[in-house]
Amino acid sequence: MPIRVAIVGSGPSGFYTAEALAKSAADCEIDIIERLPAPHGLIRYGVAPDHQTTKNVSRNFDKTAARDEVQFFGNVEVGRDVCLAELRDMYDAVVLAIGSPEDRTLGIPGEDKQGVIGSAAFVGWYNGHPDFVDLNPDLNSANVCVIGNGNVAIDIARLLVKNRQELAPSDITGDAMETILASAVTDVYMLGRRGPVEAKFTNVELREMGKLEQCVPQIDADVIPDSVPEDLEMSDRDRRLREKNLATLREFVGRPADQLPKRVHFEFYAAPREILGGDKVEGIRLERTQVVDGRAVGTGEYFEIETSLVLPAVGYRSSGMDGIPFDDDNGIVFNDDGRVDDGLYAVGWIKRGPTGVIGTNRPDGQEAAKQILEDIPIGRKPGREALAEVLASNGARVVDYNHWLTLDAYERAQARAGAPREKVVTVAAMLGILDGA
Ligand code: NAP
Question: CATH number of the domain at 104-312, out of 3.40.50.2300, 3.50.50.60, 3.30.1360.70, 3.30.980.10?
Answer without folding.
Answer: 3.50.50.60
